[in-house]
Amino acid sequence: MQRQPTLLSSCAKAATAAEARFRITAPAFTRRSSRVIALDEQAATVVRGLAEQSWNGGRFFVVESALPDDALLRQVVVGDADGGGDAGTALLSEELDGADTVVMIASAAANAAAASVIGDAAADRSIMTAGLVLPGAAPLGAAVSALRPNAMVLVVLREIKDVPEVLAALRV
Length: 172
Fold this sequence. Notes:
This protein is α/β, with parallel strands linked by helices.
């Protein structure tokens, strides 16, 4: 008896009821409650662009230039129907309530104090943290040093265009 080759699409199609019972029928992934935070001006430019795209529950913020004791963040708002939009400020402690992922984005000019405050606050709440280091002409050692102790996952990117793909992989 000659065997038939297995086609690539054969695995996805169960031909009988007996085969169909082995299919996974779990619902799609649940909605994430992610916070994406820019730690410097170059990262803020990238985060503002990302905020204009459609995401699965992600909220986008920029760290204030001088980080006060109460850890204020500037929320990135795309704008309302008439083209306006007030970014306002948000307390880090309030924004982390209910969050399940924090992604810090930084360039060579990363705010190490902000990374430390955000990393500690997320760790206190058992929130998964990730750090993305943007490519640039300047040495990235400062950004890596700022994020390494404060992020469970650290990725040094080769191109800025990779940021949306990494965020999508994290289900932001």
